[in-house]
């Protein structure tokens, strides 16, 4: 009589609290397992987004540099700004931009006004200019060509680099 | 005896034996405590899952909006660059503002090419002009330019061949006149532009003239700021 009663009781009993807790824990682990990759995908989307912004910033600076002649007065090789060229609005040749550095926190337009970027996402830009005596040559102390490299570092420390080879032409009107 | 069976059916009694009758066990449901614990646990699990999925959905929506705005900004930069690079001269530019509240809004009137009738004659025919203008209400950048000559009527060709002089080209009223021509077509250069600021810069010695611009792009859930420069690759001297 006793064993029969025990079997029927077990068959009719619901889940115990311990069983429910174990089931919840398994469910939680499964959810975290699913949410992990989703979170990583979201983070990756943010990184891609930042790279897009970095490319625009790099193109801006490269376009600005390329709108100027390579050399001061069309002839003088001098890397970096000359006396009196205290900010980039005063730069008059592409080689003045060598070692130029700025960040979006303090980025001004050429009128000296803030470009108004979000201070919470910091991009930094660096420029390197090298003289070349031929387009495929190595870096020289002077030359008729200049290899300009603009590097932009994103908030996630990704680096976007674009380069352009300029030549000693006198541009424009 | 009969009264004892009735008593047991409601789950009371028999404590002395340690067992309940089979008939009683078959009818037993969840107790209030069991039910309460079950409800609390289910609520916690559903609540946690709901919060997680809500947060995920929010993040995805924001991420999608942010990406859309960034892509739109990149497209705007590419289109402005490709439109302005072949241009010959910037006649006038109106600054506008990044909040889109300044009147008049940002605009730039320029000489897009010296090629009317397949001839480089040094004169600015009306068909060679183009205007980029920001419309803060529509949130768009528009490009106004003449339709192709093959699509013009004889009357339109005659009027499009008219030469504009510097007095007209530098006059602010020319913008409305130019937009009013029936052979000038308006196309969208970029959408979602809520603010635009243009600054035209003359060429430094031996350099190229540039248009410096800042665009603010907004879509539901995200906004972005684009600051860039477009230079004229084949500029010429100021027309007469």
Q: Explain this structure to me?
A:
The complex is a heterodimer of chains A (173) and B (240). Chain A is 35% helix and 17% strand. Chain A has two helices and four strands. Chain A has one domain. The mean pLDDT of chain A is 86. Chain A is of the alpha+beta class. By secondary structure, chain B is α+β, with helices and mostly antiparallel strands. Chain B has a five-stranded antiparallel β-sheet with strand order 1-3-5-6-8. The longest helix of chain B is centred in the first third of the chain and has 53 residues, at 32-84. Chain B is elongated and about 100 Å long. Chains A and B meet through helix 1 and helix 2 of A and helix 2, helix 3, strand 10 and strand 11 of B.
Notable features of this structure?
heterodimer; A: 173 residues; alpha+beta; four-stranded antiparallel sheet; 2 helices; B: 240 residues; five-stranded antiparallel sheet; 6 helices; 11 strands; disordered N terminus
Number of alpha- plus pi-helical segments of chain A:
2
Helix content of chain A: 25-40%
Helix content of chain B: 25-40%
> Would you list the SSEs of chain A in sequence order as H and E?
HHEEEE
Strand order of the largest sheet of chain A: 1-2-3-4
Poorly predicted runs of chain A are none
Mean pLDDT across the residues of chain A is 86
Q: Main β-sheet of chain B: number of strands, strand sense, barrel status?
A: 5 strands, antiparallel
Give a short summary of the structure:
The complex is a heterodimer of chains A (173) and B (240). Chain A has two helices and four strands; from the N terminus they run ααββββ.
